[in-house]
Each structure stands twice: as structure tokens, then as C-alpha cells.
Write a structure and sequence with these properties.
264 residues, 11 helices, D-Maltodextrin-Binding Protein, domain 2, 8-stranded mixed β-sheet
Length: 264
């Protein structure tokens, strides 16, 4: 409740601070914020278009709720099922696939088993009651985690002692997993950018169920007459352009590409 209240206070302050400027607000995932990508590309847009961009760093579930309430012009999130539901209910007027990366299952360094099936690994975690840290925040990563349990024919183990739901962002969740030598699911980009991981490693990766698509959505002006849709449309046209493609594909952290442009 406190986090939700702080979000709406932040929205209020942003809108008032920019009341006399050409501006837009984006509700985006923590991964695009924590890795620095969004700040990096937004600076280029602002320089070229003289439109101020403010970003709210939220889990996908919270970002969608903020957009449904008409508080932002654009969504940049990563749970396609939720995005399509948002569109089908008329909250958005257009949606594009923008870029992708993948999820990785993180675990203790002592786990040296080869992982050829994410389903089998989830089953092993449950059967052996290996400590698992869940974001528990309805973010895109949390939604993917729940899908992986279901894919493995496992009821989501909310009440199990070995299952720790923390209600935190990805960085904090990784920090807890590192402290406890536990398993968790992360998007690869945040994992690469995260520094405090001396006890952890990737234990499952490069498997089809771990694909992670990001979508960008223009919010319906009918939700709020004060939305700056004209400026927001310029942003979406730009971020799906060849110029933005180069920026996204060339962005590196620790020498590694984090996101892969795939709009067409």
C-alpha cells in the first residue's frame, strides 16, 4: 500500500513539475531502468525532439495499473498476455513488439548440474525443497515464474517454507538470493548489470520457455484528456525506428548486449 501511494505521489509531482512543458511519462519495467537503457535512449529522444520524458520504474503489473488509471502516456513492459488483455479492453490504441532478451534461472554456485529442461529444474527445486526467492510483485518476471511452475505441473508453492515471496524489485530479489544461497528467476539484463552476486550463477539458460519479449503501448487518450498523445506518438514512432534500433542493439553493460531490437 505504501509503495502504491508513493507511486501516485511521484506521478503527481512529475505532472505538476512539467505542467508548462512538452512532456510524456512512461511506465516501464525495472529492468530497463536498472540497466540504464531507458535513461540512455530517452536522452537521445529529448535531444532530437525537445520533448521531456519521465519514466516510472515499476513491475509490469503495477505499470499496467498506472496506465489503466490514465496516469501515463506510454507503457514499456514485458508480459505479452497482460499487454494484449490491456489492448483488448480498450486501454491502449496501439502495441508493438519492441525488443527481447531472455530470462535465466539463478542458483547457488555449488549447483553444477547441467540444465537441459527448465521444467525438470523446477521439479527438482520443489522435490528437494531448495530455497527459492520469488519477486512476488506481479511483475513480468514474477508472472513468468508462475508460468514456469504451471508448465512444470506444479501448484505455485505460496505456503511452502522453502518458497520465499519478497514483494521486491529484481535487484533486491537477487540480493536476497545471494545472501541466502537461493534460487530465483531473473531477466538476463538485470543479472548482467547486478554486481553483488558472488554466491550465485546461472543454472538454466537458453531454453525456449525463457524467451522475454518487451512491448511498447500507446495509452488511450479517453482515459485522461490531459494525456499528451501527440508527443507520445512521436516517441513510439522514434523508438521503433532504425535510429533507436542502433541505440538499443549497441547498448552494453560490462561489455555485453542486454536487449535485442525486433520491431518490424
Amino acid at each position: 500500500m505504501i509503495r502504491v501511494l508513493l507511486i501516485f505521489i511521484l506521478i503527481f509531482l512529475i505532472k505538476n513539475a512539467l505542467a508548462n512543458d512538452k512532456h510524456i511519462t512512461i511506465a516501464s519495467t525495472t529492468s530497463t531502468h536498472d540497466t540504464g537503457l531507458l535513461e540512455y535512449i530517452n536522452k537521445e529522444f529529448e535531444k532530437n525532439y525537445k520533448i521531456k520524458v519521465r519514466a516510472l520504474s515499476l513491475g509490469t503489473g503495477q505499470a499496467i495499473k498506472v496506465a489503466m488509471d490514465g496516469n501515463v502516456e506510454i507503457l514499456l513492459v514485458h508480459h505479452k498476455k497482460s499487454e494484449l488483455e490491456f489492448m483488448n479492453k480498450g486501454y491502449g490504441t496501439l502495441r508493438y513488439d519492441l525488443m527481447y532478451n531472455d530470462f535465466v534461472l539463478i542458483g547457488p554456485k555449488k549447483d553444477n548440474k547441467t540444465c537441459s529442461s527448465i521444467e525438470n529444474k523446477m521439479i527438482e527445486i520443489k522435490k528437494s525443497k531448495l530455497l527459492f526467492v520469488s519477486r512476488g510483485d506481479e511483475s513480468g518476471t514474477h508472472k513468468k515464474e508462475k508460468e514456469l511452475w504451471e508448465l512444470s505441473n506444479i501448484n505455485i508453492p505460496f505456503k511452502e517454507n522453502w518458497y520465499l515471496s519478497v514483494g521486491q524489485g529484481m535487484g533486491s530479489t537477487l540480493l536476497i538470493a545471494n545472501q541466502k544461497n537461493a534460487y530465483t528467476l531473473s531477466d538476463r539484463s538485470t543479472w548482467i548489470a547486478f554486481n553483488k552476486k558472488e554466491n550465485l550463477q546461472i543454472v538454466c539458460e537458453n531454453l525456449p520457455p525463457l524467451f522475454n519479449q518487451y512491448g511498447i503501448i500507446l495509452v488511450n487518450k479517453k482515459l485522461n484528456d490531459n494525456l499528451n498523445i501527440k508527443e507520445a506518438k512521436k516517441y513510439i514512432d522514434w523508438i521503433t525506428s532504425e535510429e533507436a534500433k542502433k541505440l538499443i542493439n549497441n547498448y552494453r553493460v560490462n561489455g555485453k548486449q542486454l536487449f535485442f531490437f525486433n520491431h518490424n
